[in-house]
Fold this sequence. Notes:
By secondary structure, the protein is α+β, with helices and mostly antiparallel strands. It has one domain. 19% of the residues lie in helices and 41% in strands. An 8-stranded antiparallel beta barrel has the order 2-3-4-5-6-7-8-9. Strand 6 and strand 7 form a beta hairpin. The chain is globular and about 40 Å long.
Amino acid sequence: MRAVWIVVLAGLLAVPAAAQEAMSRKQLAAAGAQQIVADAAKLVDTTSYVIVLVEGNGLAKGDVFPMYYRDARTRILKARNGRRSESNWWIEGPRLCAEQRIVQAGHLCYDLYQHAGNTYACIAGTESCPYSFRSVPGNPEGIK
């Protein structure tokens, strides 16, 4: 079953990761994107495949990394080099917030926008939307 999920995910992510362009908050609004409220119930026991849209902080544009939301508090990220990072996450109003440990220290909150089948993550208080992601049920990557 795990092999099937990986094949399905490769198909879902291969083209969008290469073709997807970064958009600012204003560009997303102009394109008709809808802001969505972060929902903890929908994230628990899912894996989000995060696509890097803007190069920086040691990440290359087009990088894809899985992030498993193990429970209502803990997420586990698997970096490109195989490094694993466990951190806390929470919902703050409509935003998804999390501790940052690999890319930068501290925590960030994101406003989420739905557009063309993707969820864009825009850093709260900025125009920057450096990531998008798609989520699937469970932990197909087996991230522990």
